[in-house]
Every structure is written in structure tokens, then in C-alpha cells.
DNA sequence: TTGTACGCGTTATCAT
DNA sequence: ATGATAACGCGTACAA
């Protein structure tokens, strides 16, 4: 019942283990031996063990990329960049979706048996996870942030600042009634983006009474659509000062959910309401209307994380690095009033 | 310069390798030993080797998921399903983007050093790849097709049939001037979908002279948009019989590129032109207007492929399985004339 | 508490 | 062409 080994194949074929190895992996061997060994291997259902083979032949390193849900386009962009960075001859990269925080902790604890290094992008970080990461026997690179001065390599982006650029952008276009459509606040993205929104309101000289945050249950299209539907109910009947005229969403998916709700409510985009997202996913570029979005440079962060990890493999002693990338506003039609319309107004 | 081993750490700390192992992985050891060993490990820049540790502790199997580009949402859906299927205790799944066919061949050849099994979804398959797969020393599951009776496990979906359901759908809605917007024909998806289109024209009793295939350079939004722009140039000025009134795209991305081109040309969707895609990616559901799409059940195919591989691990002797899933048409607004409009016409 | 010695499954070297 | 044997780096039973 146990998995057959080369030993057993050799025994069954009546040859030495060395001959068996050669016969199967294309070394020198007589046709007769090859036939016998192949027959025995087939008979026993033998497949070579990747781990043992790797150990013997000097395998490339293995790195694990741990995220909450690999279905998220943002993480896909990172994965793609990581994979490109390590290249084909280099380490293999395996993916694991952690789901809950607890699973992330378990993962980090036990990953050392399965990987030489970890790149993790946690959405919720608590003390247990922080400890698991700093105590990890193998190098960990965090994409995101881990709190102050944790002694690990970190790739960081100031998403609060990113929200700020979006707020400033719509404010410069004359919008005053801003709604920040956020997800759960007990997450890293949720809390930092909330901070960014309120800070931008203050520094931008906007009226805090006309700007507010509303929360969706999740960072998804459907949750955002539901929440935004309430927001737009009876929009036309309200006084101008009570009408949201710009929605800053915490990510692209939520922005799209909100735009769908706006369309359902008969609102024109961007004339009645402008929309911005975060992440600059591919969908933002192709959506109709195309979506202004704050790029958090997911691909670049993935690439940098991979570089950091590879460098740590080479120089284990190096002091932990904190590398930052700048958010970048990509302006598209969801915040662009066409010249004709501007002239007409 | 070489990577330090536990031996060297033990030597540097002046203890046995066993004590070093225990000191580092939390076994019983005196505080003094622990301190010495940790110091030595830090000094040397020691990290445990994942492969060796895995071999010793009885590692889970490793499977490689090989696709042309993991950025493709379709492959992401498969990956996600595979990862969910094998679960957390099970095999680890690593991802590799092959890009060209040649790289796919190399991958399959050398993957045996790095994995216990392969799930591959090739977009172009030639004889070399076919041979590499059938000769692989470790089990391979193909998502797609490999030609007749190749002795490997295959998860298949009849995409030609899928195109047929889309053609029948728009035909039933009265459309007669169909355009099939396809990608390169020297690919598996390209050739099989072309077949499906022409077959559906024949069996559906449509006039072949009013239906045609146009080719984009690639299966992407931008390529499709460019090609479709030509298609719609001067649409309004043409005779009705010369106006395309339905575009069947080879995938969702291309459908969206084409819809963008249609919008640019001032056409109304679906009234002037209907659109259908293939793959039923998330973007189809949230696009504006939402996109009718032929689901090829990517997630289910991923899940089935993982099952097939796991089963082969357990029963190496089993005859190769060919499991098929049925395409499924998901109707959305891009092919739905609202009741009001129907009454008005 | 510490050290010795063996084995995980495979490939490579060296004789024969 | 084939077989015995030594590694690859690590964990652990056993003995001290």
C-alpha cells in the first residue's frame, strides 16, 4: 500500500538498484535490463520521488507565496511578477491560499518543512501572526506591513497616501460630497485607507460634514453594489448638497460594484457621480466607462519581494530591508468630463 | 560561499549535529547549548534545507501546474480550484508559466526533478510536446486535449459545442449576420472554436454568406478592440444585410474589446449588435452591460484534474481516464432585448 | 542532557 | 553493462 521505491523495483526486476536507476532515467543499460526494469516499475506502479531526487541532484530552492485568496487579481499580479523574477532555472514558487489568519499562522509555522522561503501578503495581522513571522526558521518577506520595526524584509506601499491622491483628484475637479466606500476596518487595507481618506479631507480643505465613509461587508463587487444601492436611492430627489458626487472606493472591484449600482439608479458617470478605485487591475482599463484607479504597483511589489528573498538567500546577514513603492493615480473616463460637456455646462 | 549545513553549524558551536538539530527545532536541550547553536547559526547565516527536511519527515507530494500565462483569469480559476481540492494538508502546488511551447516541453522533461505530478493546460500542442507528455516519468494530467487516444488522463470540454450554443442563442433571437471574432488559428482554442462556429452555421440553417470569421492577432482585449473597430467602421451607413448584428467572441476578453469598439462607434448593445464571450470570467458578470458567456467550467475542470492526479497517485495502474464537462451558456444583458424595446419594435 | 548512528529515496562514482 | 557504496542534509531512536 505504501508508495513503491526504487529498491522494490530493482528487487522485482532482479537487478541492482543502480541498474534500475539507470534503466529508468536513460543511463547506459542493456536493452534486456531496461525492459525488465520498466516492466517491474509498471507492475508496481512506481513513480520517482521528487523530494529524494531533488535532494540528490541539488534542487533549486522552493518558495511559498501565501495570500488570503489567489483569486484576487491583485495577488495574481504579484504571483506573476514573482514567478517571472525567479525565472525558470530558479526557485519554484508554490501558492497557498490561507483564508483566515489562523491558517496563515499555521502555514508560517509549518512552512519550513515545505519551503526555503516565504512571501506573504496578509490582509489581517495580529500578534500571533507577527510572532510566527519573526520566529520563522526560514526567511520571510512581507508584502504589506507588520507594524513598527519588525525585523523582517518588507515591501510597503502607502495606500493611505494613494487614497489621498484620489481624493485630491476629484476635489480638483470640483467635487465636494465625497463618499469613501470601504470594506471591513479590522483589516490592514481597511484601516490604512480609512486613515488616508480622513487625512486627505483635512489637508485638502474639504468640508468634513459633506464627506463620509460607508462600509461594505467585504471588498467585493456584490457587497459594494448592495451598499452603494442604498447610497444612490432617491439621489435625484435630494438637494445637491446631499448628493454624493464622487465615490472613492477601496479597490477596483468595489468601484465597479458601485458603478453598477449607479447605473441601475439611472445616474450618469462621471457627470453625476465620479468613481475611483484602487489597484489598477486590468478590469479598470477595460470597463465601460474606464475606471480611474490608484495603482499600488502590485506587480512591482511582487518583483521586489522576490528580489528581497533571493538576496536574503545569498546574504543571510544583511539587515532587514524596508522598500517602499509609490502609489500612482491612473486617470480614466470615470473622472473625466468630456470637453463637449464642459463647454455645455 | 556554499550554503551552510547543519553540520557546519554544529561544528562551529562545538556540539553534535543532533544537539544542533534539537536546539534549533525546539527539542530538548540545555539553555547553554541552545544559545551556542543559535549564535553559530546566525553567524553562519544558516537556514534549514527544505528538501532534506521534507525527505526526512515524509513530505507531502508536490504538483506543478503549468500554463502559458498565469495572468489569464481562466487559469487562475483552475489554480484556485486545484489548490482547494488538494487542501492544506495535501500536496503543495507550484505554478509555472511556460510562455512558448518549447518551454513547455523543457518543463515537462525536467519537471520530474521538481514535482511528483503535473497538471498542464497547453494552448499549442505539437508532436514534441505530445511525446514529452506521454514519456514523462511522473504522472501528467492534461486540461484540454492531446489528440486521439494519448495514454494520459485528460479533462476535456467541447468548446466547439460551446460556440455552437452561443450561435444558436443569437440566431434564436433573430440575428443573422454573425461575426466570429477569433484569435490565432494555430492554437488549440482557436482551431476548435473555428470548427464549432462553422458547424453551428450549417446545422443552424444560417446563411453562410452572411456569417464570417475575423481574426485578431491575439486573444486579448486590445487586439480584439483593434480588429472590431474595422468591423464597425461605417456600420450605420451600410445596408442592413451588410451589418453584423451579433459578435461571437472566442473569449470574454475579446468580447469586451469588441464591445468597447462598438461603444466607440456609437452602437447600442444589444440592440444594434449582440455580443457573447467564452469562459464566463468574473468580468463578464460585472461588465456594463453584463456579458452573455459560454462557461467552460474552468473551476470544475481544475478540480477534476486535481482529483485525477490524486487518484493516479493512489492507483498508478488505472487506465487513463478521459473526463468531459459540458459547456454552459450563461445569458446576460449583452444578448437580452428588454421587454419594452421588444414591444416597441 | 548529549552524542552516535542510521535511514529517508535517489543519483553518481568507482570498481568489476 | 552492471553492482556495491557513498553521498545529499536532516531528524530521531537509542545508548551513554
Q: Please, could you describe this protein's structure?
A:
Chain A has 3 domains: 1-46, 434 Repressor (Amino-terminal Domain); 49-156 and 300-327, 3-Layer(aba) Sandwich (Rossmann fold), CATH 3.40.50.2300; 159-295 and 329-344, Response regulator (Rossmann fold, 3-Layer(aba) Sandwich). Helices cover 45% and strands 16% of the residues of chain A. The first copy, chain A, has helices at residues 6-13, 17-24, 31-44, 50-57, 73-86, 101-111, 127-134, 159-172, 188-203, 221-232, 252-264, 282-286, 298-314, 339-344, and strands at residues 62-67, 92-97, 117-121, 140-143, 153-157, 178-182, 212-215, 246-249, 274-278, 292-295, 322-325, 328-330. β2 of chain A pairs antiparallel with β2 of chain B, so a sheet runs across the interface. Chain A binds a DNA duplex (16 and 16 nucleotides) through α2 and α4. Chains A, B: Keywords: DNA-binding, Transcription, Transcription regulation. Chains A, B: Residues 4-57 form the HTH lacI-type domain.
Amino acid at each position: 500500500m505504501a508508495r513503491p521505491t526504487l529498491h522494490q523495483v530493482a528487487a522485482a526486476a532482479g537487478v541492482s538498484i543502480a541498474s534500475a536507476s539507470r534503466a529508468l532515467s536513460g543511463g547506459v543499460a542493456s536493452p534486456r535490463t531496461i525492459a525488465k526494469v520498466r516492466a517491474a516499475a509498471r507492475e508496481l506502479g512506481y513513480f520517482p520521488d521528487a523530494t529524494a531526487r531533488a535532494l540528490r541532484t541539488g534542487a533549486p530552492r522552493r518558495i511559498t507565496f501565501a495570500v488570503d485568496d489567489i483569486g484576487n487579481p491583485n495577488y495574481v499580479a504579484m504571483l506573476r511578477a514573482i514567478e517571472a523574477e525567479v525565472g525558470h532555472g530558479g526557485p519554484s514558487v508554490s501558492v497557498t491560499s490561507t483564508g483566515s489568519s489562523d491558517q496563515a499562522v499555521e502555514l508560517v509555522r509549518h512552512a519550513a518543512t515545505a519551503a526555503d522561503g516565504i512571501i506573504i501578503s496578509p490582509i489581517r495581522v495580529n500578534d500571533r501572526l507577527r510572532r510566527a513571522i519573526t520566529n520563522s526558521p526560514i526567511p520571510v518577506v512581507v508584502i504589506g506591513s507588520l507594524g513598527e520595526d519588525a525585523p523582517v524584509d518588507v515591501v510597503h506601499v502607502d495606500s493611505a497616501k494613494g487614497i489621498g491622491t484620489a481624493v485630491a483628484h476629484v476635489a480638483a475637479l470640483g467635487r465636494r460630497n465625497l463618499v469613501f466606500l470601504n470594506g471591513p476596518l479590522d483589516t490592514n487595507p481597511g484601516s490604512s485607507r480609512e486613515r488616508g481618506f480622513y487625512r486627505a479631507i483635512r489637508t485638502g480643505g474639504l468640508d468634513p460634514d459633506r464627506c463620509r465613509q460607508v462600509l461594505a461587508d467585504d471588498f467585493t463587487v456584490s457587497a459594494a453594489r448592495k451598499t452603494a444601492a442604498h447610497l444612490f436611492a432617491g439621489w435625484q430627489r435630494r438637494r445637491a448638497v446631499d448628493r454624493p458626487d464622487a465615490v472613492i472606493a477601496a479597490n477596483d472591484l468595489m468601484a465597479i460594484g458601485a458603478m453598477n449600482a449607479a447605473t441601475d439608479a439611472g445616474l450618469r458617470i462621471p457627470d453625476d457621480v465620479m468613481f475611483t478605485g484602487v489597484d489598477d487591475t486590468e478590469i479598470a482599463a477595460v470597463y465601460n466607462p474606464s475606471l480611474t484607479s490608484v495603482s499600488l504597483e502590485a506587480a512591482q511589489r511582487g518583483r521586489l519581494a522576490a528580489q528581497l528573498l533571493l538576496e536574503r538567500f545569498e546574504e543571510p546577514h544583511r539587515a532587514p530591508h524596508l522598500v517602499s513603492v509609490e502609489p500612482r493615480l491612473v486617470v480614466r473616463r470615470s473622472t473625466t468630463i468630456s470637453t463637449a460637456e464642459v463647454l455645455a455646462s
